[in-house]
Amino acid sequence: MKNYIVLDLEWNQNAGGKEEAVDHFPFEIIEIGAVRLNETMEETGEYRRLIKPRVYTELHEKILEVTHMDQQTLMEEGICFEEAVKEFFLWCGDDPVFCTWGSMDLTELQRNIAYYGLPDPFKKPLLYYDIQKLYSLLEGDGKDRVSLDVAVFESKVMEDRPFHRALDDAHYTGRIMSKMDFKKVEAYWSTDYYCLPANKEEEIYLVFPRYSKYISRPFESKQAAIEDKTVTDLICCKCNRMLKKKIRWFSVNQKVYTALGCCPVHGNVKGKIRLRRNDERMVYVVKTMKLIGEDEIGGIYEKKDEAKKKRVEKTKVRKQNKKKGAIPPS
């Protein structure tokens, strides 16, 4: 039996702005809401707790505006975070399959858990369903994301209950799941990146119907990451074959690298490397390999030409600046 836990969180932030926030702790969770769904997407239970803030004790004006939360009620009825987390995971039960609207909730939950020095209760890697992404795959182009209230309206599941409170948003997300053709998209797990692989042996490889994903361990620098052979290997997402390169790795903005390979069995495969930083400012890689049609190849060549033009222009500017800074002969 599936045990879907649809989770939503509300959090506070420093009322004085990001500059005064605690390092690696931008958001403090002040409410946990969740509903449990069975295999037929029927709601079989719910959980809600207010959490008394201890770091950012004054509610940010945007939080007050969006949630309409009463600060006095929060301080009087809220329990401590440690107690709420323990209670919540007991409620979740065995083998929970976490579902969220968007990708932030599980990251911030882990960040709060780490701040309070609690043991991380999640399995590694932490796979979950991003219902916002799945909704886009079914109802959109798979790239654009719509807000929860828009999806609720489009799915015709609107009820006489507000948005932007944890339990209500969790309930609405569950209602959208009940209307989705979930079987069509259940293969498309999302991966949380908060807790990265500790070493090469723990690096993550996931295979989906039309693409594969690789998540690396952290590297000390971007240069170290892109010099790693596993990072730059161009491999077919279907048969794991090393590919013949039609376009070698190139980058327009130094954060995203693109390449094109050809598999003799499955055709053209586009590679994309995204360079990201964790809380410790170390670099990690998310690489996807995706089957593409002939109509998409032209766009890759155009991006490559754009990257070449930028390199030429950058070199030209550097030479001009060097010439300007040169000391004239006496």
TrEMBL record:
Keywords: Exonuclease, Hydrolase, Nuclease. Residues 3-186 form the Exonuclease domain. InterPro entries: 3-5_Exoribonuclease, ArfGAP_dom_sf, ERI-1_3'hExo-like, Ribonucl_H, RNaseH-like_sf, RNaseH_sf. GO terms for molecular function: 3'-5'-RNA exonuclease activity; nucleic acid binding. Signal peptide: none annotated. The keyword Transmembrane does not apply. Residues 310-330 are annotated as: Disordered. It holds the Pfam family RNase_T. PANTHER family: 3'-5' EXONUCLEASE ERI1-RELATED, 3'-5' EXORIBONUCLEASE 1-RELATED. This is Inhibitor of KinA sporulation pathway (Predicted exonuclease). It comes from Lacrimispora xylanisolvens.
